[in-house]
Amino acid sequence: MGSIECGGVLFDLDGVLVDSTPGVTRVWRGWAIEHGYDPTEIVKLAHGRRAIETVQLVAPHLDSAAELVELERRE
After folding, report:
1. pLDDT at 73 over 90
2. Is 14 a catalytic residue?
């Protein structure tokens, strides 16, 4: 494997260069269905929120830290 010499690395974390919306939507829809929630509503709630905050909001009875680990694994 070759190497690349560069002066910096650009990370696109806000969706400007790469649109992560389809992947995030897929993960939240699956999570909602598995937990008996309306996937359309969960996706709307999750948009613009940190994942852990969404879990705490809609499912305070769940272990939000464990759910976050699983959501991040799926993404």
Report:
1. yes
2. yes
